[in-house]
Amino acid sequence: MKKTIQKAVYAALVFLPMSAFAAEAAKAGEVKKTFIDVLADGGWCMWPIGGFSIATVWLIIDIWMRTNDKKMVPAEDVSIAQQSFLAGDYIGAYQAMKALNSPFANVVRSALSSVGYGKSATEEALIAEVDKVNSKLQTRINYLSVIGVCTPMVGLLGTVSGMRGAFASLGSAGIGDPAALSGHIGEVLIATASGLFIAIPAFMGFYFLRNKLQAGIHHLEEESSRLFRNAPYEYLKDADVGQEETFAALPNWVQGQQGA
Fold it and tell me: Which range has the top average pLDDT, 25-29, 87-91, 176-180?
């Protein structure tokens, strides 16, 4: 089902705009062209524009799935953490979150690793991990903005390149056939229009997914913080919940003094 949706979105964002160009040409009384013909009319720049279109569709689908509540805060992960916290098994909770792979599990695991240092350290670790998740997803979303800015420029570059060729042809053959010149100009403008058609959904996806991410981050922080509300930090003092290997040993000069 998901693959079908992906194919449909891809067709809507890539093939439909090009079909629109062919339809406009038919309305104007020109010879009907196939999809491949329309792509060829755009020139070399249609290759990078095509790559941008595929990247836009992939990013929108990928980020949409990553920012869903079911992906960021899976109900199964929340249930496992809650049961371990209710049983007072913080070590078990850490190991369970370490075995899972979700933003929620990573945030809880990071907070548990600092729970032995008090409430402030735990909250700082929790917020730091939430910021890390937010930064990672926001970077992906920013790529949509980059595509939205660069694609029209690539289309414009293709148009300028095509216009240069059209006027070069005019200079060598003269203006004996104005219709042919106007046809060439109409063809090279496909590049500019293609760039705009890709930039519009890219920018729309950027702003929509950015807002969706912020809602998801707030939900992630809220669900994670609920676990540590009224946590018995006085009993967890100096507890090594993570039981990870420690590399920060005493300074060698202190060790030497103790061994003397």
Answer: 87-91
Q: Which one is predicted more confidently, 93 or 245?
A: 93
Identify whether 254 is part of a domain. Answer: no
pLDDT at 15 over 50: no
Query: What's the confidence (pLDDT) of residue 93?
Result: 95
Token code pair at residue 126 = 């929790």
Q: What is d(CA 100, CA 94) in angstroms, rounded to the nearest whole number?
A: 10
**For position 8, what pLDDT does the model report?**
43
Q: Among the residues of the chain, which ranges form H helices?
A: 2-10, 16-27, 35-42, 46-66, 69-72, 75-86, 90-99, 103-113, 119-173, 178-227, 252-259
Q: What is the pLDDT of residue 13?
A: 47
Tell me: pLDDT of 37 over 90.
no
For residue 33, being part of any structural domain is answered with yes
Q: Cα–Cα distance between 210 and 204 in angstroms, integer?
A: 10
Which pLDDT score, from 0 to 100, does residue 174 have?
57
Find, among 17, 22, 5, the residue nearest to 57 by Cα: 5
Query: CB within 8 A of 74, min separation 6: which ones?
Result: 100, 102, 104
Residues 6+ apart with CB under 8 A from 114: 121, 122, 124, 125
Q: Show the domain range for 108.
A: 2-241
Q: Residue 25 and residue 32: Cα distance in Å, rounded?
A: 7
**Position 224 in a domain:** yes
Give the number of domains in the chain. 1
Tell me the C-alpha distance between 34 and 22, whole Å: 7
Domain presence at residue 251 = no
| Cα distance between residue 128 and residue 27, in whole Å | 58
